[in-house]
Amino acid sequence: MQSDSLDPLRGELERYVGRADNEGEATTECLDDDTIAALAEGTLAPAARAAAMPHLASCHRCRRAVASVARALADPVVAREVSAIDRGGRRRFLRIAVPLAAAAVLLLFLGPWPRNGWIHRGTVGSGQGTPVALTPSGPVSAARVLQWTRVAEADRYRATLFDAEGRLLYETEVTDTLVALPDSIVLRPGPPYLWKVEARIGWNRWSASDLTRFSIAGGTPP
Amino acid sequence: MAESWIAPLEAGDPERAWSLFLERYRRLIFGAIRHYAQDYDDVMDVFARVCEALRENDFRRLRTYAAQPLHHARFSTWLVTVVRNLTIDWFRQRDGRRRLSAVAEGLPVLQRNIFEHVFLDRHSHAETYELIRARDAPTLTFRQFQVELRATYRAAADSRRGSVMRELGGHLSSDSEPERDSPAENDERRSVIAKAFDALDPADRVALQLYVVEELPAATVAGILGVPNAKAVYNQVYRALAALRSHLERAGIRQDDL
Hints:
The structure holds two protein chains of two kinds.
Chain A: H1 9-20, H2 33-41, H3 46-58, H4 60-74, H5 76-110, E1 133-135, E2 138-140, E3 145-148, E4 156-163, E5 168-174, E6 178-180, E7 192-202, E8 205-208, E9 212-216
Parallel strand pairs in A: 2-9
Antiparallel strand pairs in A: 1-3, 3-6, 4-5, 4-7, 7-8, 7-9
Helix pairs in contact in A: 2-4
Chain B: H1 6-10, H2 14-36, H3 40-67, H4 75-104, H5 109-120, H6 125-135, H7 142-158, H8 164-168, H9 183-198, H10 202-213, H11 218-225, H12 230-250
Helix pairs in contact in B: 2-3, 2-4, 3-4, 4-5, 5-6, 5-7, 9-12, 10-12, 11-12
């Protein structure tokens, strides 16, 4: 929307809001920092957002805080630091996950096999507690959507896509059990890709699927 | 992503937790402070205050966060929110009237008055206009006032206090505000607009307030409102303005009257 032959109402609105909304002390109705932060970063769950909206409409203090944090997050310096923290976290993950995966592979091939075969202690693929990556897996003709099983106690999922060298290609958090890859993610035929999904099952508790490998058919496998 | 500082904090090693926390988040804390304050000494003092506040009462803030079973936001965003609040509080407490007044010293008389009303006494722009007209400048039109208001904001923003002034003051009205008739007519019109505005859906009111008044980008407002994209925000704002117009027309106020 451009400024503004649009509407003389704007001036009136600014004037009215300015008058009605003198910022005062916080009340018990005011939003907590976590909710303000989630609104500012755009991740508040629909139900929580619907509950917060009437207060946000009437409380200049909270509204200004949300706007202020949103501006801070858009500040290039702040955005760069947040991104660096995220990358650091992923580097830590890879530093731990890659050796663990290598050890698991070694154990699989070198370890003692049970005489009577493997005994499952739980229902495979039940989705209880741990998400299972469904598609894509193995050679596929195309992969524009990542899909996994639902975890009953999860309120959020984080899907992460890597290339064969472990470089992060895409990561997102959703509440659904699938995510469409944006057009900016171009998967080439041939080379393998890896992806995983983590389910948030409590405070700071994420349950991760196995890394799942797939490739787009039509290329030359490495 | 697991927060490495939580385990030692819960295991009774808060200094180890603090060390891990600072290692990971020190630069973000500085970045968030610098968003609000540019002066080096201010930044360092606020950083010290943030550290002090986070360590207060045996790390109460961090412990409370860690103990919550569910969080809506990422920890880094929660931390930016906390730093923002502490920064604004620090400036309010430290500057108070005397130090903020130093910003106004070089301003023309009218702008100094505006500065004191808006930034020191925390009056809204409309209240400031009414007060100045009643006490000092009875012939001051609202349009003239807005010109001076903008100049005051520019002077404040150019000061060493930087963008924290925006947080301490009010928001800035647009230049499109027409001149008003009599105060009684203004009050009546404002009352009608207030009722029309309050009759809107809360999400529409928030959309108008964030997009029009706070002047956030539409894409940012979309995230806050939970709508798909900026275009949805444009549509929501236009619909809300249309509803306001319709309400006002029913109350006998036409667009030409605004």
